[in-house]
Design brief:
Elements: H1 25-50, H2 75-81, H3 86-107, H4 123-145, H5 148-159, H6 179-182, E1 186-189, E2 204-207, E3 214-215, H7 237-242, E4 248-249, H8 251-278, H9 285-309, E5 335-338, E6 344-347, H10 351-356
Antiparallel strand pairs: 1-2, 3-4, 5-6
Amino acid sequence: MATATQAVPRQVVRQKREREQELLVWPDLVFIEFISAILFTLTFLILSIFVNAPLLNQANPNITPNPSKAPWYFMNLQELLLHMHPALAGVIVPTIALLLLAALPYIDRSNEQQGVWFGTKNSVRITVFASIYAAVITVGLILYDGNKHVEVVTEIAQRMGNEDFEWPGKLSAFQNVRALQQGWRWAIPVPKSAQLGPGEHDGELNWPQDFEHIPFPFNGTWGPSWFTWDEPTFLPAWLRALYWYDLNWNFPAFLVEILLPVVFMVGFPALLIVILKRMGWVQTVRDGAIALFSGFIATYWVLTIIGAGFRGAGQELVQPTDVPVLHEDPRIWNQPMELPEGHLVFIVESESLQNDA
């Protein structure tokens, strides 16, 4: 009678690496970093001798540079501020993006080809496609929100002989995203009791007026007489600040500044993954991570380049040659003047000083 033998799990013994296969932090890595830092410092010093930095004068509350731009590494966030709510662009989106980047190693748990550039079969094609896709979508959305398609259509119509061409009024609500809040107008008849807010109840539900002041439940200012009350001044100030008395919801602003940007930021990456899956390029979690990361980097650089090189006075979209050079503005530059005694001072021209003079 044969006896069943229990399978013994096979133990994998890691081979001992030789010294020449190891890379120590000291001196191998730190020494290279030290030499690189010295070379960078010397190069920076030589450049500073031959090229003067375009430094401006100290901040003056009476003179605001136009355009006033953030450092280049924050230019992408400043560009986002033009298209969505400040809290969403400046806090929520960067925080979520950093958290997702930090979570990638926990989402992609595979050790295959770890630490290798383009370690999957379709990684190169995915990177190129995702980068172009993200760049085109980002540029297209910025041009659309900047009303450039209207300018192009108008210019083409005028060059074709129609000098009096104007963008059709029926399409005014689709000139840009902001037009949904400011340019779109419609009204539908409703019972007066169905209208929201404390405004005039005329029997029509008008966009956007009747949607700009939607009261929150139990805010004390809307409803039957027994459902309204005065501000609870008997409460401490800190507690009154927490209570939503007279709090209202501006739905058109929410739609334009929060909802639609979130739909775009979530929908287009999801569409990218769907397209790549249909093409058979995304087959693993790592393929999807490569696609999303490549799209993120492309979007980062597109926003940075547009914010730095295509935003002129008033943050309007202009050609790079029309972007004002701030250090050539005589109102805010540091103008050196040598005194007879040989001392060097700086004269700062200010509009307020000129007005006083």
